[in-house]
Structures are given as C-alpha cells and as structure tokens.
Design goal:
Layout: H1 16-39, E1 47-52, E2 56-58, E3 62-68, E4 77-80, E5 83-84, E6 90-91, E7 95-99, E8 111-119, E9 122-131, E10 140-148, E11 160-171, E12 175-183, E13 189-192, E14 198-199, E15 202-206, E16 215-224, E17 234-243, E18 250-252, E19 256-259, E20 272-276, E21 282-283, E22 286-289, E23 295-303, E24 306-314, E25 322-326, E26 333-336, E27 340-350, E28 357-365, E29 372-381
Parallel strand pairs: 2-9, 22-29
Antiparallel strand pairs: 1-3, 3-7, 4-5, 4-8, 6-7, 8-9, 10-11, 11-16, 12-15, 12-17, 13-14, 13-16, 17-18, 17-19, 20-23, 21-22, 23-27, 24-26, 24-28, 25-27, 28-29
Protein name: IPT/TIG domain-containing protein
C-alpha cells in the first residue's frame, strides 16, 4: 500500500499543513500500537488498526478498514452512525472496503460519528469524521416552442384545443421539472402529465442532456374556449418549465397569441428563446423594463445550417414609445455554417407612457421562408 504521506523533495516548501498532517499520522500510529499491545493478548480479538481515507469522509466515498481478525464477511456487522453497511466491495480477515451510504442528519461540514464492527469473535469501534456531500444543483438551459397547433379555427363553443410544445433540456444532471401553462384571459387551461392526467401543472422527470442534442420530449397543453368568449378576443398562452431543485433553472415558451374565430399561428421550424435578461426583470409572462433606460435582452435561436434574416418588431407601438435594436454585426442577418445555437443580442428601450405590448423576434431562412423561428415576448414598463 502506498504511503499516505507525500515525500518531500529538495527545495520544497514544508508547510504547517504538511507538518500537522505528519503529527496526526504519528499520533495515529501511537494509538494503533497501544491498541495492539492492549488487545493483542486476547487471542482472536477484533482490532481496527486504521481507517482510510483520513480526516473527513463524505457520503459516497470509499472507506477502507484495516485491522485483524475480521473473519468472514458474511458474519460481519459494520455500522456507521447507527446505519448498517449492507454491501462490501471487497474484504478479507484484515481489510474491509465499502462505500459510505447516505445517512440522515449528517451536515456538509463534518461531524464525529461512531463506527462499529461486530463478529462472532468480538466487537471494535472507532470515531470517524463524517460529512454529507455538498448538493449539486441542476443547471443548464430549457427551450420550449410550439410544435403542433390545433387544426382549424378557434371556435367559442366550449371546445377544447390541444397545443403540443417541444421541450429540449440541456442539463448537467437528471432532474424533475414542473411544467405549468398560463393564459391571461381566465379560460380553463391544463397540461397533460406523463401519465395522461390533466392538471394546472405537471412534473416531468428529464434525464441529463448535453449539447448539442439535449433531452427532448413533447408536452401537450389543452385550452377550452368558453361559449361566452367573443369573436376577436385575444389571449396569450405560455408554457413555463422550472427545475424542482434549482428555482433559477427556468424558462418559458414564446407568448402564443390566440384569437377567437381565427386559426392558431403555424408552428415554427425551430425555437427562439429568451435566455438572459436583467436580474429581477421577469415578472410572470412579462419582461419589465425601467422607463427611459435601455435594457439588454439576449435571445437564442436553434437553427439548421443556412443563411437567415432577423426581424425585430413591436406589435402595438403607438407614438413609437418602444424601441428595439439589434446589437449584432450585421444587425439584420447571419449565416450558420452548421446546425446549432446562434445568440441574438438586442437592446430594448421604453419611454415614459409606453403601454404593455409584445416584442416579436423572428428569424427566417433567406432561401426558404417556411423555415422560421419566432419568439413573442410580452413587455411592459416597471
């Protein structure tokens, strides 16, 4: 077994940390010698001579017990903080190896717990420093876009219409996400969960997905248009996905306009998502900006290979109080040499008195207008 003490070479700086570690090893050696001397007279006594790794051991780490007279693994009972070790990775009469299991109540800083070893020949125990492993937060990006609108016109007769959204998740780990639709006119709206059940929100377990493929799934939202709705009524449908653990891992689809009596907008060929705004500026379905102060919004388009034009527009902008500008070079086009993400930097300014409205970001193929992506983002002044 290699020595746990790192050798010193000529010219190396000998730190206090190294010396303290060396002194700890000497103290540990003296304790082991004393234990052997005191227990060695008893024939067949169980002795724990060393525990590796030294210092703080974290949940999930491999722990190695070194000693003598451990006996057969089938007859050994090892507990750590009162929890029995159910499985050994390897073992012999002088060595036991296992992974530290999850233990309730252990903090991340480390705390002393009792390790015990029992077999037909006797009992031994030692105190070890045990700590929980720091929690890893899910991080990444979520992209949502309409992939299949309902066929025909939206009729106000109590009918229910299904809108299918494509979700692509790029995440560093498996995670459960909460999918929740919203509709600004109060009509009944529900999401179809993984089991087919309808509800105001649903939880979807999504596996880890890396770039560029990610993890993909379809989510269906159902909207019921009541018979009391008037022809021409405008509603906005949006689907939001949020990590169950990391509340900052969140994104929403474009705000989809629904006009009673008209057909739903066609599904785009690719997604355009809002991925970065000033902290605290997202309030529900709106991005809220301070009056007379420029705000920067970053959009991301997941485009096929090709050349594209960029169109930025404000849908209702009386007196031109809203202004949206491209911060790209050139400002209104780009070429993607391969499929993937393209970032669209914009600057939005709203003058005092500007009314809540929609910002529309459209990316269109210059060779095939049917290949487009669009993001409709609701905006208002703070």
């Amino acid at each position: 077994m290699p020595s746990p003490i790192q050798k010193v070479n000529p010219g190396d700086l000998i730190t206090s940390e190294f010396m303290n570690h060396l002194l700890d090893r000497i103290d540990n050696l003296e304790e082991r010698v004393a234990r052997i001397e005191s227990e060695g007279a008893a024939s067949g006594a169980v002795v724990i001579l060393d525990i590796l790794p030294e210092g703080i051991v974290r949940v999930g780490d491999e722990m190695r017990l070194i000693g003598r007279n451990f006996g057969l693994r089938e007859l050994i009972v090892v507990t750590l903080a009162g929890k029995r070790i159910e499985q050994f990775k390897s073992g012999s009469d002088s060595t036991l190896v296992f992974d530290v299991p999850p233990i309730v109540g252990i903090n991340e800083q480390g705390q002393p717990v009792l390790l015990t070893l029992n077999n037909p020949q006797g009992f031994a125990s030692q105190t070890v420093m045990l700590a929980n492993r720091p929690q890893t937060l899910p991080k990444g990006e979520i992209h949502l876009s309409l992939s299949k609108p309902p066929a025909g016109k939206l009729i106000p007769d109590g009918s229910t219409y299904s809108f299918v959204f494509a979700l692509t998740a790029f995440s560093n780990m498996d995670e459960t996400f909460i999918l929740e639709p919203s509709l600004d006119v109060g009509w009944p709206v529900a999401v179809v969960g993984p089991t087919g059940a309808l509800g105001p929100k649903a939880e979807f377990f999504i596996h880890q997905g890396g770039f560029p493929e990610g993890t993909k799934l379809s989510v269906t939202v159902q909207v019921t248009i009541p018979s009391t709705a008037s022809i021409g009524t405008l509603a906005h449908l949006q689907l939001t996905s949020k990590s169950k653990i990391n509340q900052e891992f969140i994104n929403s689809s474009a705000s989809l306009p629904l006009i009673v009596g008209e057909a739903s907008s066609p599904a785009p060929a690719f997604s355009v998502s809002l991925i970065s705004v000033r902290e605290g500026s997202v309030q529900g379905e709106f991005v809220v900006v301070p009056a007379d102060t420029p705000d920067f919004l970053l959009f991301r388009a997941d485009v096929p290979k090709g050349s594209y034009s960029i169109k930025l527009a404000i849908s209702k902008n009386p007196h031109d109080l809203w202004k949206i500008e491209s911060r790209m070079t050139p400002p209104d086009s780009f070429t993607a040499d391969q499929p993937g993400f393209v970032d669209l930097n914009t600057r939005l300014t709203g003058k005092t008195g500007a009314e809540a409205t929609d910002l529309v970001v459209t990316v269109i193929s210059t060779t095939n207008p049917a290949v487009f992506g669009e993001m409709i983002q609701r905006i208002k002044l703070a």
